[in-house]
Write a structure and sequence with these properties.
Elements (H helix, E strand, L loop, with lengths): L5 E7 L6 H9 L6 E7 L6 H11 L4 E5 L6 H11 L4 E5 L4 E2 L3 H13 L7 E10 L5 E3 L2 H5 L9 H5 L10 E3 H7 L9 H12 L1 E13 L5 H11 L12 H6 L8 H15 L8 H6 L7 H13 L3 H6 L1
Parallel strand pairs: 1-2, 1-4, 2-3, 6-9
Antiparallel strand pairs: 4-8, 5-9, 6-7, 6-8
């Protein structure tokens, strides 16, 4: 059986508290042909000391570098992605725990599609179990808790809007890497960018089994950014002030088919508009740009009503 090497890339920053658990879970994978690339973003704690000890013990498994200056987690991941030259790349956070069969299941799903599509960009991602800082389970399914429901076929509207692809579950092939690089300077979340690029040009495989224990804690950089963005939502309407507009503006639209381009352009128009909010509601639904749940859409209808002056509703 062909057992290609998987490059696991991990961007670290002040991760001393949980990183050993994550590294142990990666080393315990049932699929063991891996190389772990770590790039530290100028940690001020003992993160480098911890990963250096792993390097000493598993020298053939680890490649470690440290940035000369702090780049931020998106640029750090971009640098890591550009450094690896393997057919398969898995993205890892520094504070989660992988289920033992994560890579095995994702690679199997990937290679099934590649049999007939060797030149296709492919991303595999999975559901997650949410745990707290002490590894107590908060919920069994992140996707169900958040109301994400992705079709197994192409679902660009859901990826552009709710998304639901978490970077710490992603396994991608080199074809996707080659399309995605270089990142634009306007990208705030690498997983959203990769998910959008892949949905436009490639094939997404969604595994509904939780293959990662996703740790929620106050020290997590991405969690803090998400919390901040939630507070900044414009009058309760979805996706506004989340950085998605900047990401979508940066896309090279020359090779995007007209159907996808129309959805992207409408979504951009919505993200940047401050007036006539109600007029966007049914178009968001028809383009599948909001979560699919009935009660979510029902409540969203009234949010749009509340945010639109009565005179403008009457005119419409």
């Amino acid at each position: 059986m062909h057992t290609p090497t998987i490059a696991v890339i991990m961007a670290t920053y002040n991760g001393q508290k949980y990183i050993s658990k994550q590294l142990d879970s990666i080393l315990a994978q049932t699929y063991s042909n891996i190389v772990i690339y770590i790039r530290d973003d100028c940690s001020s704690d003992n993160t480098m000391d911890i990963i250096s000890k792993y390097k000493q013990k598993y020298s053939h498994k680890f490649i470690i570098n440290k940035n000369k200056q702090n780049l931020g987690f998106v640029k750090n991941f971009e640098l890591l992605l550009s450094e690896v030259d393997y057919d398969y790349i898995a993205i890892s956070d520094q504070d989660d725990i992988w289920k033992p069969n994560k890579l095995e299941k994702e690679l199997k799903a990937m290679m099934e599609i590649e049999k007939d599509n060797p030149n296709l960009a492919i991303m595999v991602h999975s559901d997650l179990e949410i745990i707290d800082s002490d590894e107590n389970q908060i919920c069994k399914s992140f996707l169900k808790k958040k109301g994400y429901s992705l079709s197994h076929s192409k679902d660009l509207g859901q990826i552009l809007g709710p998304c639901g692809v978490m970077g710490n579950t992603i396994l991608m092939n080199k074809n996707l890497k080659n399309i995605a690089l270089p990142f634009s300077a306007n990208i705030e979340f690498h997983d959203y960018y990769l998910a959008v690029i892949n949905e436009i040009y490639g094939k997404r495989i969604t595994l509904n089994e939780p293959l990662v224990q996703y740790r929620i804690h106050l020290d997590n950089t991405s969690n803090n950014n998400i919390l901040k963005l939630e507070k900044n939502k414009y009058r309760g309407l979805p996706f506004l002030n989340t950085g998605k507009a900047m990401c979508l503006k940066s896309l090279n639209k020359d090779n995007i088919n007209i159907e996808d381009l129309n959805i992207i352009n409408f979504f951009l128009d919505y993200l940047e508009c401050k007036d006539y909010a109600f007029s966007y509601y049914f178009s968001l639904l028809s383009n599948n740009l909001v979560k699919k749940g009935f009660w979510y859409r029902f409540k969203l209808f009234f949010k749009f009503i509340i945010n639109t002056p009565l005179s403008k509703i009457m005119l419409r």
